[in-house]
Amino acid sequence: MLQLTNAIILCFLCAGSFAVQTAAQSSPIASPQPVRYPATPLITHNPYFSIWSDTDDLTASNTVHWTGKPQPIVGLLRVDGKTMRFMGASPHELPAMQQIAHLVTPTHTRYSFTGGGVQLDLTFFTPTILSDLDILSRPVTYISYTLKSIDGRSHADVAVLTDVDPVIAVNAPGEPVTYSRNQTETQTILSVGSRDQRILNRSGDDLRIDWGYFHLSVPKDEESVSAIVRDTSVEPGGVFVTTGMLPIADDMDASSVVGRGDAHLATELLFHTVTDQSMTRHVLVSYTEGYAIQFLERNLRPWWQRNGQSVAAMLDAAEREMPALDRRATDLDTSLTADLTRTAGANYANLCILAYRQAWAAHGLVADLDGMPLVFGKENFSNGSIGTVDVLYPAAPLFLFFNPALLEAELRPLMQYTALPNRWRFPFAPHDLGTYPLANGQTYGGGEATEADQMPVEESGNMLIMLDAVARAEVNGKPNTALAAEHWTKITQWAEFLRGHGLDPENQLTTDDFAGHVTHNANLALKAIDALEAYADLARLLGKDDVARDYSKTAHDFAGKWITMDQEGDHYKLAYDSANTWSQKYNLVWDQILGYNLFPKSLRDSEIAFYKTKINKFGLPLDSREDYTKLDWSIWTATLASNPVDFNAIMDPIALWINLTPSRVPLTDWYDTKTGEQEHFQARSVVGGVFIKALTDKQLTDKWRAMAADKK
Asked: Using CA atoms, how far apart are residues 378 and 380, in angstroms rounded to an integer?
């Protein structure tokens, strides 16, 4: 059983950097250094199974999907004949327990509550271990409840209710569902899913899943009662509220249409008598869908199911492995928090912790028909694209730091798509693979039909830089050039395109497409120049020395010209022909990380010095046109700094924004630096880009990559 112990919490205190809401002295997770979360991750697996709390107190609102749509999970505690809420705003007539602590770590979310003379410690544990694909793909979160008396008395009639609304298994209320009850070797399982099971039937952004099944599982060694019952079980006057017990029979007469008298999944964990000795019980929540992604018209299974593992076998394995997994994950939390704090301070560590689970939860990990892992990211709260190159690019530092094989697994389907005859016909890289979860070909801009609203320099540069970064991430002591070698003809085509169009880009979009088309974009040109050197580096690694010398000379020549074309006094312009402008030159960071050395350190230093004069209350604007910024790019820009003082000049206003933003959503990456308000975007994978600062520490990067290598 999982316990929230003082020893575990002291480990985090000793680490020196974590996000926590201050609380009473009695709380085991209290800290004198508060951080308020814009939203709190509870269950974070993939774009469909991602549940959050958007208020400081877990009882102030019902839990929601990352899109903000309701997916209520209600938690009630009964003590000495009285019932209280600890999760969810309803039933609002019941008193809420006092929340005394709130802590987010890379793999755990912890709360503490008091009421009725007892303390309840609630833990959501999602084993987001990026070094272990089997565990990472397993769609299980553990919810644990630890109770103890805090008033010197024993308390009787103690039970915890977990109630799940069936809307969790469909896109929207009004959809018909079916229920089931099953037994495995270790668990009793209540399940709910869409009646129609329209597998991979549609794509889009603001959508929830409507195929597969949600499971609420109770270990058989936990004393419990489970039932499929009408939602009155969690209302005043309902059976649990009045008697403290669920019905012993499922409600067979309940409607099977969500929102119309539908039945909920409910389980009651029986603690009976609680003393000052802590007692812990837990449940498992999971979502299984059979097929997760359609890639080039073929339906692909989640990675955990690649060898035909059944849902029952997967859940039994999850239960058996829980203690060992929790030890691994707790060690990860402690070690990573300490490492990030030493790298760039507490504010940076807190930001990375918030980004960690969110970034991964915007991805799906599946097995191709040949058994190779493929990763597909969703462009959340933007347009729902799948495999977006300029979303993968900012997210790449997360993968490069922890497990470069994940980045390779996301690049692989893009390369396979561009290699298809008569599909991607352009001399530059594509923008995307379709709209999630259907990766059947680009849908953005002109799609496969025209060059209208494409991102030629942007995406070509992104792909070449990422391919080189993957190649530099060695496997068994050798460069990992297999993907580049397999697709060398296509990669060469993109490099040739950048040599002709990269130094002075035409009027086109960049990854910051919300800012519109820009001609002669200086930051975009930086990307192209870095990408030409990336291609030269790939050629060198593949033994193509003549090609390497040729393109490296071009990259160095372009770098010298760029400095002359863009410099304006003490800084560099937004575009070559735009006087009195400036912009974050975040693309410079790869020149530093990958050791291209195309540009002098003095250029980075002068830009940082100039940026420090432009910082607003909540951060550095993206450029001179607007007050808004991008979170990921701001950290990339801060990483150009030569010393901690300059890095923190950009980082510290971001930390202030995290605490004060009025936008209570999963971490947005596009916000106003004066008001702190969200411009758009939320729950996106691009926040994984904040790990770029950690990526600059080679020794630290090698340490975390080694964990992934050990799993191969």
From this structure: 6
Burial 184-217 (b: 16+ CB within 10 A, else e): bebbbbbbbbbeeeeebeebebebbbbbbbbbbb
* Cβ atoms 162, 73 nearer than 8 A: yes
* pLDDT score for 29: 37
The owner of tokens 């863009």 is 566
Q: Are 291 and 364 in contact (CB under 8 A)?
A: no
How far is Cα of residue 643 from the mean position of the Cα atoms in its chain? 29
Question: Most distant CA pair in the chain: distance in Å?
Answer: 81
Q: Report phi then psi at 682, rounded to 5.
A: -165, 155
Instruction: Determine the Cα–Cα distance for residues 263 and 269; give it in Å rounded to an integer.
Output: 19
| Mean pLDDT score across all residues of the chain | 92
405's enclosing H/E stretch is helix 404-418
Question: Which tens digits make up the pLDDT trace of 77-91?
Answer: 999 999 999 999 988
Which tokens is 118 given?
A: 């007892």
| Of the candidates 553, 519, 534, the residue with the CA atom closest to the CA atom of residue 462 | 534
Judging by DSSP bridges, how do beta strands 571-572 and 628-630 pair with one another? unpaired
Q: H or E segment at 555?
A: helix 545-566
Pairing verdict, β 363-367 and 298-300: unpaired
Place of tokens 């974050």: 584
Check the CA dihedral 389-390-391-393 and report its sign.
positive
For residues 653 and 655, give the distance between their C-alpha atoms in angstroms, rounded to a whole number: 5
Q: Which of 160, 124, 193 is nearest to 267 (CA)?
A: 160
Q: How many whole angstroms separate alpha carbon 218 and alpha carbon 227?
A: 11
SS3 state of residue 65: strand
pLDDT at 712: 56
* Length of the chain measured in residues: 712
Ordered DSSP codes for 108-156: EEEEEEEETTEEEEEEEE----TT-HHHHH--EEEEEEEEEESSSS-EE
**Pair type for strands 298-300 and 293-295:** antiparallel
Could you give the 3-state DSSP secondary structure of residue 167? helix
Separation CA 600–CA 590 (nearest Å): 13
Cα angle 355, 358, 364 (rounded to 5 degrees) comes to 135
Q: Write the CA distances from 460 to 31, 465, 479, 502, integer angstroms.
A: 46, 9, 22, 10
Give CA angle at 217 (145, 275), nearest 5°: 25
DSSP secondary structure letter of residue 378: B
Contact by Cβ (8 Å): 123, 110: yes
Tell me: pLDDT of 646 over 90: yes
b/e map of 660-690 (b: 16 or more CB within 10 Å)? ebebbbbbbbbbbbebbebbebbbbbbbbbb
CB 339 within 8 A of CB 348: no
* Proportion of the chain above pLDDT 70, given as a percent: 94
**The two structure tokens encoding residue 605:** 């230093």
**What are the tens digits of pLDDT across the range 373-385?**
999 999 999 899 9
Tell me: pLDDT of 27 over 50: no
Give the predicted TM-score (pTM) of the model: 0.93
Alpha carbon distance 424, 438 (integer Å): 17
Structural contact between residues 682 and 666, judged by C-beta atoms closer than 8 angstroms: yes
Closest by CA to 550, choosing from 559, 563, 539, is: 539
* pLDDT at residue 477, as a whole number: 84
Q: Distance between CA atoms of 607 and 589, rounded to whole angstroms?
A: 12
Task: Tell me which amino acid residue 93 is.
Answer: E
